[in-house]
């Protein structure tokens, strides 16, 4: 009789991970569909590379980060389940609305709505998962959660590309991916329970008040481990997601592929390479010896370092076969880092700062991959297009420059390990004081 509650508790935990992982998948799909139809949108609205980057990336990121921090502050004080459900309903409805837009300004307003909704997705979701698993198991649980990333990328690439080809309209992809998300948001309200905050730490929601945003920022800055982990995750977004944002367009220009052909090629890699690498990472992190945070950071540093070289070759070569082969090596690293990095960051944050700390992490990551990467690549491409006489060649040079930032991310993972012991003791001390 004493052992019967454990299986029920364990299955309930993993149901939460499954549902929130699907939320993450829909979130990612709604982002990737924009990259899939970037070239058709650019042509229809008569935009330059930097202009389409501003419309599709910068506007979403600006409002994402503007409302993300207040939402995270609310999530550290109130019901996180309700926030996730409401956010998903909003961004899914706005995604579907993108399919009905007829001009630049309508698209811009709907895209802003997507950014506002998506701001309430990941920070409260990861905070919920952190309160369903003890410290040593969070990297494993969040890696399973991160399977939503390759699944969403496949939906936003292969599935969206097929929809565009079938209906002969880029708008159909937004409608098809947006409407189901509204229904799924209602399912979250009905089936997911809000966990006790800080249940696996020395501090719970009943013993300590939520930290302020200023306190969270100070803590992140003073904890060198958390600072370097956040820096590593931010630069990986600049490197990996920044490259993938433009890769669909690059394949269409350089090799003459259609939207459906490029989407199918990338979607296959996203799904199989991304899922395979994420599952393999989860299996590795499930090993007892990998509950040591240092080994997780060393593993991520080595993988990113090795993956930077093929990421350069993808755009250096003029062979579609070689570029595709290199993408099979790069894409796994662009996906598998998510769960372990989230877990490392959450482990170095007190429970009363987790949602806000994750929101700050997402703020810097989204500035990198939705503002800096798209606009910098677009600006370099526009600048070089005239002298090179080709917007395909100019985009190639811009992406080669961006690919080298992977070395920078690897450095931060490696450096973070130096202060793990001291910062881990500090987190425990904060809990004991509270």
From TrEMBL:
<feature type="transmembrane region" description="Helical">
    <location>
        <begin position="227"/>
        <end position="247"/>
    </location>
</feature>
<keyword id="KW-1133">Transmembrane helix</keyword>
<dbReference type="InterPro" id="IPR036259">
    <property type="entry name" value="MFS_trans_sf"/>
</dbReference>
<feature type="transmembrane region" description="Helical">
    <location>
        <begin position="267"/>
        <end position="286"/>
    </location>
</feature>
<feature type="transmembrane region" description="Helical">
    <location>
        <begin position="170"/>
        <end position="192"/>
    </location>
</feature>
<dbReference type="InterPro" id="IPR011701">
    <property type="entry name" value="MFS"/>
</dbReference>
<keyword id="KW-0812">Transmembrane</keyword>
<keyword id="KW-0472">Membrane</keyword>
<dbReference type="InterPro" id="IPR044770">
    <property type="entry name" value="MFS_spinster-like"/>
</dbReference>
<feature type="transmembrane region" description="Helical">
    <location>
        <begin position="395"/>
        <end position="414"/>
    </location>
</feature>
<feature type="transmembrane region" description="Helical">
    <location>
        <begin position="322"/>
        <end position="346"/>
    </location>
</feature>
<feature type="transmembrane region" description="Helical">
    <location>
        <begin position="51"/>
        <end position="71"/>
    </location>
</feature>
<feature type="transmembrane region" description="Helical">
    <location>
        <begin position="142"/>
        <end position="164"/>
    </location>
</feature>
<dbReference type="InterPro" id="IPR020846">
    <property type="entry name" value="MFS_dom"/>
</dbReference>
<keyword id="KW-0813">Transport</keyword>
<feature type="transmembrane region" description="Helical">
    <location>
        <begin position="12"/>
        <end position="30"/>
    </location>
</feature>
<dbReference type="Pfam" id="PF07690">
    <property type="entry name" value="MFS_1"/>
</dbReference>
<feature type="domain" description="Major facilitator superfamily (MFS) profile">
    <location>
        <begin position="16"/>
        <end position="418"/>
    </location>
</feature>
<feature type="transmembrane region" description="Helical">
    <location>
        <begin position="358"/>
        <end position="380"/>
    </location>
</feature>
<protein>
    <submittedName>
        <fullName>MFS transporter</fullName>
    </submittedName>
</protein>
<feature type="transmembrane region" description="Helical">
    <location>
        <begin position="298"/>
        <end position="316"/>
    </location>
</feature>
């Amino acid at each position: 009789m004493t052992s019967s509650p454990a299986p029920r508790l364990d299955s309930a935990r993993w149901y939460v991970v499954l549902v929130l992982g699907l939320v993450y998948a829909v979130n990612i799909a709604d982002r990737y569909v924009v990259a899939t139809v970037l070239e058709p949108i650019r042509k229809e609205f008569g935009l330059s590379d930097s202009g389409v980057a501003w419309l599709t990336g910068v506007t979403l990121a600006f409002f994402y980060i503007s409302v993300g921090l207040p939402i995270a502050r609310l999530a550290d004080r109130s019901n996180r389940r309700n926030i996730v459900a409401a956010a998903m309903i909003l961004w899914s409805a706005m995604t579907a609305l993108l399919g009905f837009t007829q001009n630049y300004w309508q698209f811009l307003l709907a895209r802003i709505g997507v950014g506002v909704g998506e701001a309430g997705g990941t920070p409260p979701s990861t905070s919920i998962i952190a309160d369903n698993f003890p410290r040593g198991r969070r990297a494993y649980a969040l890696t399973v959660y991160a399977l939503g990333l390759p699944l969403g990328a496949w939906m936003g690439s292969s599935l969206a590309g097929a929809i565009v080809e079938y209906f002969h309209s880029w708008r159909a992809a937004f409608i098809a991916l947006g409407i189901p998300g509204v229904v799924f948001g209602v399912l979250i309200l009905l089936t997911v329970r809000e966990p006790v905050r800080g249940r696996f730490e020395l501090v719970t929601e009943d013993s300590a008040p939520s930290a302020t945003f200023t306190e969270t920022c100070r803590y992140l800055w003073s904890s060198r481990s958390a600072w370097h982990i956040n820096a590593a995750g931010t630069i990986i977004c600049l490197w990996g997601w920044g490259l993938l944002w433009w890769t669909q367009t690059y394949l269409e220009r350089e090799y003459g592929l259609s939207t459906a052909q490029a989407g199918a090629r990338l979607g296959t890699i996203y799904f199989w390479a991304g899922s395979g690498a994420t599952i393999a990472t989860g299996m590795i992190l499930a090993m007892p010896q990998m509950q040591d945070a240092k080994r997780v950071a060393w593993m991520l540093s080595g993988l990113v370092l090795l993956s930077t070289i093929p990421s350069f070759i993808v755009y250096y070569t003029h062979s579609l076969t070689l570029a595709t082969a290199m993408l099979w090596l790069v894409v796994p690293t662009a996906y598998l880092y998510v769960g372990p990095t989230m877990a490392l960051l959450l482990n170095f944050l007190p429970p009363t700062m987790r949602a806000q700390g994750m929101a700050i992490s997402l703020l810097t990551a989204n500035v990198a991959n939705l503002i800096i990467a798209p606009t910098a690549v677009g600006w370099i491409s526009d600048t070089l297009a005239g002298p090179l006489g080709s917007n395909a060649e100019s985009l190639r040079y811009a992406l080669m420059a961006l690919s080298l930032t992977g070395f920078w991310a690897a450095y931060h993972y490696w450096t973070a390990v130096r202060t793990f012991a001291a910062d881990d003791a500090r987190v425990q001390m904060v809990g004991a004081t509270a």
